[in-house]
C-alpha cells in the first residue's frame, strides 16, 4: 500500500494500551506521541493526499463496550491524523442507532469521510451506491496479516456485492450464551443448555420471579432483538427462499417458533420489560441479577471483569443453543468503509487509515479491551483468545459459526429486513398485542415482501 508500516517496538501490548487509553483520548488531548508510535513516514502519494485533503477527516466509530476500547480507537485515529498533518474528527455512534444516523446523513449529504458499519448496513449502502470499493486496502491488510479467515472472506465477497469489495473487516460480533452457572447448579444443572428446549426447562426450574427471570433475551427493536431471527431459523423458519427474492415467513416452522416463544413469555420466563429494552437492557438485566440467561457479544463480560468479578467467575459462557432444525450462530463482521461522497484524497487517506488500524500490536490491545472475534489469521495468536472465556468462544465461532443470514441468502433485502427489526416486531405482535400467530405471520410476510420487492430487478 502507500506506507511502509512498522510494528510498535520496545513496549509491551498492555503498556502501550495503558498509555494510549490514558494519554491520548480524542476528547482530552494528552500525549498523542505514544499513539503515533510505529506509524512510519508517509509515502509521497500519501503525503500529497494529505496536502490535497480539505476539511477535517471525520470518522464514525461504532460504539462498543467498555468505553476504553472506543477511546483507544479514537486515540489511534487522532495520532494517524497528526502524523499526516490533517485534522481528525471522531464521532462515537451508538451501534443501535447507526442505521438511523446514516439514513439522516445520506439525506443531508453529510456522511463522514469514513465509518464503521455492520455487515447489513454495508450491504444496504453498497446497493444504494453510497460506498466506494476498497479492494486495495482489503488485499493489503490480508497479505500483511496472514490472510483473512475463510468465513470472513466469503462474507466480504458474497455474490450480492457483484464482485466488488466495499469494506475492510476488523472484527466480528458473535453471540455467546451467558448462564448463571451458580444458580443453575443449585437446581442440578451442571452444564449450559445445548438446545432452546433445554434452556426453557432450566429457566423454568431455576427462576424465581419477580426476583429473577430465566430468559433475558431482548424482544425489542434493537440489534439484540434480532437474535429472534436466528432463533426462528433454528426452528426451520426462513425469511425468504434460496433465491433471496420471495419471503417465506408464513410457514409452519415460523408458527412453531412463535408458539414456543409465546408459551415461554406467557409463562413468565421473560422479564416483562424485555419488549421495550434499549440496547443495554439485556446487559443490565444480567449484571443486576434479574436474568439467568442472556445472549451477548461479550461486552457484559468486560463489565463484570471490572465491576463484579465474582459474577464473571460464577457465570458460564457457551455456544448458542440449537433449535429443532439445528444451530444457527451467525458471524456478524464489522467493516471500515468509505462513502462515495468522500473526496479522492479522502479515499486515499481512508484506505491508509484502515491499514494503520489493522496493526497487530494495536489490534491485540484493542481486542483485549473490546469484544470482537478475529477476522485475520494473525489475530488467532492474540493472547485474549485463550485468556478470556468469552473471547475463546468467539474464536470457536470464527471457526464453526454460520455465515451472515444463514440459512437465508445474504443480500440487501435481508439486511433491510434485519435493519427494520422485522422478527422482533412480529414477536411483539404475538406476545404484547395478543393477536393470533397466523395474523402476525401474515403481517410480517407482507412487510417482508414489500422490503424484498424494493430490491427486485
Structure characterization notes:
- The protein is α/β, with parallel strands linked by helices and 457 residues long.
- The chain has two domains: 13-166 and 332-400, Periplasmic binding protein-like II (D-Maltodextrin-Binding Protein, domain 2); 176-329 and 407-453, Periplasmic binding protein-like II (D-Maltodextrin-Binding Protein, domain 2, 3-Layer(aba) Sandwich).
- It is 46% helix and 10% strand.
- It has 21 helices and nine strands.
- It has helices at residues 13-23, 44-52, 67-84, 98-108, 119-127, 135-144, 150-156, 181-186, 196-206, 227-234, 252-266, 281-287, 299-307, 309-314, 344-356, 360-369, 384-387, 389-400, 412-419, 422-431, 437-453, and strands at 57-62, 88-93, 114-118, 168-173, 176-179, 213-215, 291-296, 316-318, 332-337.
- The chain has a five-stranded mixed beta sheet with strand order 2-1-3-9-4, with helices on both faces.
- Helix 3 links the parallel strand 1 (57-62) and strand 2 (88-93).
- Helix 2 crosses helix 15 and helix 5 (119-127) crosses helix 19.
- The radius of gyration is 22 Å and the shape is globular.
- 54% of the residues are buried.
- Mean pLDDT is 90; it is low at 1-34.
- This is ABC transporter substrate-binding protein.
- Belongs to the bacterial solute-binding protein 1 family.
- Keywords: Signal, Transport.
- One of its GO terms (biological process) is maltose transport.
- Residues 1-26 form the signal peptide.
Amino acid at each position: 500500500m502507500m506506507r511502509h508500516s512498522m510494528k510498535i517496538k520496545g513496549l509491551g501490548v498492555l503498556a502501550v494500551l495503558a498509555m494510549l487509553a490514558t494519554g491520548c483520548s480524542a476528547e482530552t488531548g494528552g500525549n498523542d506521541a505514544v499513539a503515533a508510535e510505529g506509524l512510519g513516514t508517509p509515502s509521497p502519494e500519501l503525503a500529497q493526499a494529505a496536502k490535497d485533503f480539505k476539511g477535517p477527516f471525520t470518522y464514525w466509530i461504532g460504539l462498543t463496550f467498555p468505553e476504553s476500547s472506543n477511546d483507544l480507537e479514537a486515540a489511534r485515529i487522532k495520532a494517524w491524523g497528526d502524523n499526516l498533518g490533517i485534522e481528525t474528527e471522531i464521532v462515537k455512534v451508538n451501534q443501535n442507532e447507526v442505521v438511523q444516523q446514516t439514513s439522516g446523513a445520506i439525506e443531508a449529504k453529510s456522511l463522514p469521510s469514513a465509518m464503521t458499519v455492520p455487515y447489513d448496513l454495508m450491504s444496504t449502502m453498497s446497493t444504494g451506491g453510497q460506498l466506494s470499493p476498497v479492494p486495495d486496502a482489503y488485499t493489503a491488510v490480508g497479505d500483511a496479516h496472514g490472510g483473512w479467515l475463510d468465513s470472513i472472506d466469503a462474507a466480504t465477497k458474497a455474490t450480492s456485492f457483484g464482485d466488488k469489495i466495499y469494506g475492510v473487516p476488523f472484527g466480528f460480533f458473535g453471540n455467546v450464551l451467558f448462564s448463571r452457572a451458580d444458580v443453575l447448579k443449585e437446581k442440578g444443572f451442571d452444564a449450559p443448555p445445548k438446545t432452546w428446549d433445554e434452556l426453557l426447562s432450566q429457566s423454568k426450574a431455576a427462576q424465581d420471579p419477580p426476583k429473577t427471570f430465566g430468559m433475558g433475551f431482548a424482544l425489542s427493536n434493537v440489534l439484540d432483538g434480532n437474535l429472534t431471527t436466528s432463533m426462528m431459523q433454528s426452528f426451520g423458519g426462513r425469511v425468504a427462499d434460496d433465491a433471496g427474492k420471495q419471503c417465506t415467513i408464513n410457514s409452519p416452522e415460523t408458527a412453531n417458533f412463535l408458539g414456543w416463544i409465546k408459551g415461554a413469555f406467557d409463562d413468565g420466563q421473560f422479564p416483562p420489560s424485555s419488549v421495550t429494552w434499549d440496547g443495554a437492557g439485556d446487559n443490565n438485566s444480567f449484571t443486576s441479577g434479574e436474568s439467568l440467561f442472556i445472549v451477548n457479544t461479550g461486552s457484559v463480560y468486560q463489565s463484570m471483569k471490572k465491576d463484579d468479578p465474582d459474577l464473571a467467575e460464577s457465570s458460564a459462557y457457551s455456544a448458542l443453543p440449537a433449535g429443532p432444525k439445528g444451530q444457527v450462530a451467525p458471524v456478524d463482521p464489522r467493516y471500515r468503509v468509505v462513502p462515495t461522497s468522500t473526496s479522492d484524497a479522502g479515499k486515499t487517506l481512508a484506505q491508509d487509515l484502515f491499514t494503520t488500524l489493522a496493526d497487530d500490536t494495536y489490534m491485540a490491545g484493542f481486542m483485549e479491551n473490546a469484544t470482537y472475534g478475529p477476522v485475520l489469521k494473525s489475530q488467532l495468536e492474540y493472547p485474549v483468545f485463550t485468556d478470556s472465556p468469552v473471547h475463546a468462544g468467539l474464536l470457536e465461532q470464527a471457526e464453526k459459526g454460520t455465515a451472515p443470514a444463514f440459512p437465508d441468502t445474504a443480500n440487501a433485502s435481508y439486511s433491510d429486513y434485519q435493519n427494520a427489526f422485522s422478527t422482533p416486531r412480529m414477536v411483539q405482535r404475538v406476545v404484547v398485542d395478543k393477536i393470533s400467530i397466523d395474523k402476525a405471520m401474515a403481517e410480517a410476510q407482507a412487510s417482508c415482501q414489500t422490503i424484498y420487492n424494493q430490491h427486485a430487478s
